[in-house]
Structure formats: structure tokens, C-alpha cells
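pasting for the record
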Amino acid sequence: MYAEERQQAMAGIIARERRLSVSTAAESFGVTTETVRRDLAILEQLGLIHRVHGGAVPADALATVELEVAERDKTAADQKDRIAKAALDQLPGDGGSILLDSGTTTKRLAGLLPLDRRLTLFTNTASIAMKVAGSPSVEVHLLGGRVRPATLAAVGPTTVAALANLRVNVSFIGTNGLTAGYGLTTPDTDEAAVKAAMIGAGHRVVVLADSRKLGVETLVRFGTCAQIDTLVTDDGVNSSDVQALEDLDIEVVIA
């Protein structure tokens, strides 16, 4: 196999599998790890991949730009609907308390909350609060702070301070990226601080993330895999991602 053919094959694997380790590539193509690293360097120069420790990921996997809420809501809509429905099984019993992070999937979950179960809900997003404000069974608390235009979520010191005094049964967290090696990430530092505080406020932490988020690392880490109890995702998830997370004692629910 010529070098160009090998590099093209590597690029194809990375696009499909969302990652490729140097050791796996060396074994698969029958070349040295040094050769693989040179191939990956060429692919990175072409803008096709990003090199990371031990291998490579797609060029779009280290994103720093957030889509606006309306655009994100239309993306992977069917998958998000299934994830929200599956997440109902993660709710606490009657009289329990939950935190709903900002996000298009957590908003879907808010719209599905049962009417026959008393719950106390805290959120930093007005649109989520409005989804359930009229429910006779859900007591809604809206956290204050500066509203970010990109997510319409309250962030900043006021929000973080309010979360420091909370302890809920379950925190439902959204994320822009999740990898077994690095954890949970988001592009904005203020958003990350609030998400980290929400994780700290929950007895259990349930992450709601469609399969496009797995294998992605964005700018700021706000949580580690050791802090996640359950991930609810969709059936587009890569089996290797599932195995890597389950090896870290994370329950993976596929909707």
C-alpha cells in the first residue's frame, strides 16, 4: 500500500469511528508507530484530522464554536426526543428533587415530566422553567444570573453561589463533548462553572448527550467521568465509546 492510500484509509477510519489510536493503526496497516505519526501529521496539515495524545480525532472534534439554541434544537431532534423519554427512568421517586441543566435535550425532558409525581425542580433556564411552571405536581425554582445569548441560560457568580447551597437527588446535565479520557467539556468558561456546580449539587449525575457528542472535546472541562453515574444517549453511539465508558463504571442507557 502506498503512503497516500494508507493516509486516505486512516482518514476514512477516523471519520467513521471518530478516533484512531497510533497503536491500532500501526497493527492494522503493518507499519511502525513512527510511520503512523508521520501520516497523521500530514492529515492534520491537510485539515482532515486533529492529533491528540495517542492518536487522532476528526477535525470537527475539537470545536470551540457554539451553535445558537434554535439551530441546536433542530439538530438530531429525533435522537434527543428518544433520549429525553429514556431519561424519565432516571427520575427520583415521589417527593424527589432534580436539577435540569440548560440544553435542548434537558428541555425535552422537562416537557415529559410526569403529572402524578411530586417533584422539586431547579434550573438556570427560563424556557425550561416555563415548560413546567403550570404543572400541579412540580415545584419550579429558577436560578438567577446573567443570561448568555448562545444558550439562554443563567451563568455567573450568582448562579454558582445558589447551586453551592443545593443538594438534589439527580442532576441532569447536558454537554458539548464527552470522552472517556478527558470527561465533559463545553466551549464557555462561565457555562462550565455552572455545569460543574450542578454536578456537585447532585447525589446522582445523569448526562443526556446524543451520540454526536461522544468522542468530542471542546474548550473547557467541567467534569470528569468519575463524576458521572449514568449516560443516556442514542443508538448511533460507537460501541467502543460505550465500552470505554462502561469500563469506568458509567451506566450507559441507549435510547
